[in-house]
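Lab notebook, bench 4. We co-purified these components, and the gel suggests they stay together. Before we commit to crystallization screens, I want a quick structural picture of the whole thing.
Request: model the full complex, all chains together.
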Amino acid sequence: MSVAILKDSRKLSFRKGIHPADREELSRDQAIEVLPTPEVVRIPLLQHLGAPSKVCIEARAEVRMGQRIAEASPGLSANIHASVDGKTAREGLVTLPNGRRVATLPIKSNPEQGLEGEALKEVYLGGNWSFDPECLDPADIARSTLEAGIVGMGGAAFPTHIKLAKNEKKPIADILVNGCECEPYLTADHRLMIESPDSVIAGSLMVQRATGAKHVSICIEDNKPKAIEAIRQAIGDRDIDIKVMKSKYPQGSEKALTVAALGRAVPTGGLPLDVGVVVVNVGTAASVARTVLRGMPLTHRIVTVTGEGIVQPKNLLVPIGTDFKTLIDACGGLREDVDIARIIAGGPMMGFAITDLDTPVTKGTSGITVLTAESIRREQATACVRCGMCVDVCPLDLVPTKLALAARHQNVELLNRYHIDACMECGCCAYQCPAGIPLVQLIRSGKILKRNRK
Amino acid sequence: MALSVASSPHFSRKANGTRSMMLDVIIALSPVIVASIWIFSWYAVVQVGLCVLTSLATESIWQKLSNRPGSVLDGSGAVTGIILGLSLPWSAPWYVPVIGSAVAIILGKMVFGGLGMNLFNPAMVGRAFIMLSFAGALGASAYVYPDAPMAVLTQATPLSAAKSSATLSGFPDIWALFMGNRNGSLGETSALAILIGGIFLCIRRTASWQLPVGVVVGCAVTSGLFQILGLSNLTILQHLLGGSLLFGAFFIATDPVTSPLTPKGKWIFAIGIGITVVFLRSFSSYPAGVMFAVLLMNAVVPLINRWTIPTPVGGPLPSKS
Ligand code: SF4
Ligand code: SF4
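Here is the predicted assembly.
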């Protein structure tokens, strides 16, 4: 019966895009496991889009999990909280997944933790999440979200309280709760929807309440039938739509999703807000619920550790600030029998290659993907044959080859004529190019060039 | 463990590469080659063979001289050779394919900077050159040979027959045209073989389907109009099947390098070729309408690309009032 419903519902999609192998089978069925508390966490003071946070606690102070250690700067920024019980050390520097060096406040964890293991998992995912939205003050939800330091957990790490602030000029009609998880390999959102659908639903209703939106839809790709089923049951008879999306990359990007789910396209340089939409990731929604109902700030997140180079791929619940090495070790380490070529923070389409295993997990780290030489193998780059395949897959209707050419020739006028600002660096073009041209890399260099010329 | 760092994406489509694209084209051309050998026997083998060998040799010599990293094996030279060979008459003397291919590679491709940089379809550049230099070797009479071993070779090509007589008595029936049992350039005669190979190319997405469809539609509509207006005595089907239109639509117009980038641009380019072919056939004395039509439209590709820059999804941000 339920399968029949799934088959009948129309699968929504956007134009173009690509169909990479999803490789989700590696970690899809691995239930979320709690990482044993690491000895030390090094919490970066910039984990979000915007300005770094300011430390608000001394070195060598005792802190409790969830205690605020750095506060949001004015404007676009976010609070940061201790993710373990322990003692702060002196500020140091740490390399973020994107290569940026930022200040960090390390915390040495106490041998005794107030909350860890199964108890932590129960508080994080389990129990009862029901509440009455009418009893909540919309402004309070936005305020708690700010307090809790919640940022977008799908990758971009945009501070969530900004999205939830009521905006008289731009009323919100629709909330899209993004459970597409279109990056190959990653399954953190998938597991969350299966193991704690009620927290996702609760968070979605809170986002609706905060923004005053009329409709809420939860969008899930059709390659996750179990998640669709779990969410459907959790919704019960509440007024929440479930939208089954076609599995296609980049279905989970805000721009593709608003088009696919609502037929509304976000203008270049704009936000979903400009077309009356707020998009939140399922993980973000669950974090809002966790804050409002259980008073837990954003201290942990679910990270998929996966790829052909990992002995036992897993979905781990980890304190923010844990280094990648600890996560990889918790998954049996790197495989010795394969040729490991690249370790990526995030997924293979938009993630960052890292070389330093001390890189810490941040609020936006959705996964660690370890790829082998075999899986990243690509042809030597040859000349562009102007085949237009990059054009045929660009979800935003750009002409990537011309952008790359303009970047090579450092021609800003040409970059503008071909709308460089619109590119979201999704990587479809470079994935498809038969000549193996690093289009995204060239386009990024074009963006830097343009910024420097200003 | 040697960790590498690179810009995202860290994943790419498997089994790609320019060479595999060119291999697709060669596979797609094989039914045409087979049909050509069936109709013209070893004449086809000789012409195509000479063209391919000369193309590859020219390319490697050029690369030696100019000290560029080798690309001879990327397959594009072979494709140029095959297409040029298939667009020659069976009777052309040996120096015609040889000079034609050398010019195709040098003037058509290498002087522009190699594969991907050229403006004009290399095979058509080579063919235009020999057409102008050895007019006799490619003229209407080059196709006809009264004492030829094969029956078809004793006839004029359908389009030149139509030019010289008002009654169309020399025009084979449509079925013969479809199967390829008629005279013409080596590769253009069998519509069936061209369709098999061409549709394969489109299914593999090595060729953009808009291109052949656009050429055919452009030609069909214009020739229909011309027939109604009495400007041409040929029917639509005779236009489509009587010359090298189909071969051009599937194998020449689809050269990625010399066609536009966006779907809209591809339509403009392809329909433009179809229309130009009918004009040339009706008003010019050259029998090679497709070749000139392709070269002409090649020349406007940069303009077409400029006209058809798509607006990004969502459009610009409405200016704040
Ligand atoms: S896909 Fe690659 S080869 Fe084809 S036009 Fe784009 S950049 Fe050039
Ligand atoms: S040009 Fe930008 S938006 Fe378009 S496919 Fe490439 S990376 Fe994606």
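Chain B touches chain A through 47 residues (CB under 8 Å). Worth comparing against the SEC data before the next meeting. The mean pLDDT of chain B is 85.
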